[in-house]
Design a protein that fits this description.
This protein is of the alpha+beta class and about 550 residues long. It is about 30% helix and about 20% strand. Helix 16 links the parallel strand 18 (about 430) and strand 19. It binds siroheme and iron/sulfur cluster (SF4).
Length: about 550
């Protein structure tokens, strides 16, 4: 290429160049897997994500070992599990792999997946092969592609919700990268010459500008936090079949504390189209983002910024011209959060049980053998399970007479199967320290203390029956969806948090920031003072989110004034 041609090429970020030259996501991953080092090279870290892997290091060990010491590297590996649905054998396989190749625990995620932490480079292949043997995968669980498709949980065996399994699987399969790299690198499959391999029909060689998140639900059921997704589908039904979908686009939560050009955004209503156009609509939305999304600045590359910059009308027009038809502008559904914890009788008479798992962490803790208990219950009753977007686990298809025996498994191990208090059941925290390389402060490890204080304040002020949705993250990226909570804490630096109020339990409104410099020790008393205001000035039955939204920020900021 001549110098002038080189100069005319549009400027793109470094990650774009890595994707383009990766030979279909292969890079040097195979070679590096064999080189005996505990870690991968910098460029390979970007490609690993497309295979569902992040390289991490133990951040507690970083401070113990000090400057200049080798980091304690290990990998985080994330499954691609559409709708978080697994049969008993699949769950048991995931459980077993955690002991064999991970740190012994499973971490349920806010996108209905499972993460392994602490996997050594030398164990990665065996773990991924094990996942493959269970008919699941890690392909495209991360990276600039359509990631794990989330889906409304269906603990009651509702026939309409069950109809969502098929489109969720279809979207997941259709938007998985087609490269043979995964099979070659992790499964020792036959090698294909990347030069002769057909180009990926959806992603080409540069994939998408950024991660892309898709969710599917029934119109009205917002147990998936629909508005936080790049693309969300809300099914409508007629005579027991899916008649079509409402489409929402451009949701996303990540922001940076110091960059006002980054912000959380709730998805906008795009329109409705009949069911038979579903894949074509999804392809069109993805294609517009692929063509126009920002490839220079990764902090401005999510679909939400394209929507803000060009406008919804422009975006709709681009989608419709690819689709060759117009999307119907219908009235939008009203949204509710649907609770699935505890015992329920399903449509077919079997039982389901929604088990609350704080921060989705399934481990055998000291005197708290949660992982063993779940394993025993799954071995004994062979239920199918579904991970929820709130990091919980629903067991389905339990025989009607199983209730006592199921509960006894947990009781015999000293475990309670009910949330510790009213605020616990919908509380979320991201992993943050010590595994997350981006964490600025604690989240999951601090959540139990924080919730104990919040529950104490609720109980003290007679507000136990109106617990707010509380979420905490270790940085502003928003992995535990803090900006659609009622009360949220977002790490700013060690021991310092931004505090947000004003979302709603239905997840249809964004929070607002009270302050971004609240010391961790001040959080319990601040919450207590906010609840005193709520108790005094709140309307009958008013939620904390609605109250704080109505009141505005000033009275809360005044609490921090001195
Ligand atoms: Fe996330 C990056 C964990 C859901 C927004 N997220 C990360 C990484 C991989 C850190 C990194 O890049 O090095 C975290 C790994 C931590 C660890 O040690 O395991 C991480 N994100 C998680 C999980 C495990 C949180 C959880 O508590 O469950 C969730 C995994 C979901 C899954 O199974 O796929 C998770 N992340 C989310 C969500 C919520 C959602 O999608 O429903 C969001 C906000 C929605 C959104 O995408 O806008 C989210 N994660 C981010 C971002 C900010 C993206 C942005 O647009 O700015 C990053 C950083 C990035 O991409 O640069 C990030
Ligand atoms: Fe890490 Fe930040 Fe996501 Fe928490 S919110 S997991 S600290 S990237």
């Amino acid at each position: 290429m001549s110098n002038s041609q080189e100069a005319q090429k549009p400027q793109v970020s470094k990650v774009e160049k890595i994707k383009e030259s990766s030979r279909g996501l292969r890079g040097t991953l195979s070679e590096e897997l064999e080189n005996g080092a505990p870690n991968f090279e910098a460029d390979s870290l970007q490609l690993l994500k497309f295979h569902g892997i992040y390289q991490q290091d133990d951040r507690d060990a970083r401070s113990r070992s000090g400057e200049g010491m080798e980091k304690a590297y290990s990998m985080m590996i994330r499954g691609r599990i559409p709708g978080g649905r697994m049969n008993a054998d699949q769950y048991l396989k995931f459980d077993e792999l955690a002991d064999l190749y991970g740190n012994g625990g499973l971490r349920l995620t806010t996108r209905q997946s499972i993460q392994y932490h602490g996997v050594l480079k030398s164990s990665m292949k065996e773990l991924i092969k094990g996942i493959h043997d269970s008919m699941l995968s890690t392909i495209c669980a991360c990276g600039d592609v359509v990631r794990n498709v989330t889906q409304a949980p269906n603990p009651l065996g509702d026939p309409e919700l069950a109809l969502l399994d098929e489109p969720a699987n279809l979207i997941s399969d259709h938007f998985a990268a087609r490269s043979n790299a995964y099979v070659e690198i992790w499964l020792d499959g036959e090698r294909v010459d990347p030069q002769t391999e057909a180009e990926d029909p959806i992603y080409g060689t540069n994939y998408l500008p950024r991660k892309f998140k898709v969710a599917i639900t029934r119109a009205g059921d917002n147990s998936i936090d629909l508005f936080t997704n790049d693309l969300a589908l809300a099914a409508t039904f007629e005579k027991g079949s899916i008649s079509g979908y409402h489409y929402y686009v451009g949701g996303g939560l990540g922001k940076n504390h110091r960059n006002a050009k980054t912000y959380p955004r709730l998805a906008s209503y795009l329109g409705w189209a009949p069911a038979d156009q579903m894949i074509k609509v999804c392809e069109s939305v993805v294609a517009v983002q692929k063509e126009y999304g920002d490839r220079k600045d990764r902090k401005h590359a999510r679909l939400k910024y394209l929507l803000e910059d060009r406008g919804l009308a422009w975006f709709r027009n681009e989608v419709e011209s690819r689709l060759g038809s117009s999307l119907d502008q219908q009235s939008e559904p009203s949204w509710q959060f649907v609770d699935y914890l505890g015992w329920h009788t399903a449509a077919n008479g079997s039982l389901s049980f929604g088990l609350h798992i704080l921060s989705g962490r399934i481990i055998d803790g000291k005197n708290q053998p949660l992982k063993s208990a779940i394993r025993e219950a799954v071995e004994k009753y062979s239920p199918s399970v579904q991970i929820t977007p709130d990091q919980d686990l629903v067991f389905m298809g339990l025989p009607a007479e199983a209730k006592e025996g199921f509960e006894a498994i947990f009781q015999s191990k000293g475990l309670s199967i009910s949330p510790k208090g009213s605020v616990y059941s919908r509380a979320l925290a991201c992993p943050a320290l010590p595994t997350c390389g981006l964490a600025l402060a604690e989240a999951e490890r601090f959540l139990p203390d924080l919730l104990a204080d919040i529950q104490g304040s609720l109980d003290k002020h007679g507000l136990t029956d109106r617990p707010p949705v509380v979420r905490m993250t270790g940085c502003p990226n928003g992995c535990a969806r803090p900006y659609s909570a009622e009360l949220a804490f977002v790490g700013r630096s060690a021991g310092i948090y931004a505090v947000y109020v004003g979302g709603n339990p239905e997840g249809t409104r964004l929070v607002q920031e009270i302050s971004d410099t609240v010391a961790v020790d001040r959080l319990p008393s601040l919450v207590d003072e906010m609840f005193i205001l709520w108790k005094k000035d709140g309307k009958e039955g008013e939620t904390f989110g609605d109250f704080s939204h109505r009141l505005g920020l000033q009275p809360f900021q005044a609490l921090l004034a001195d």
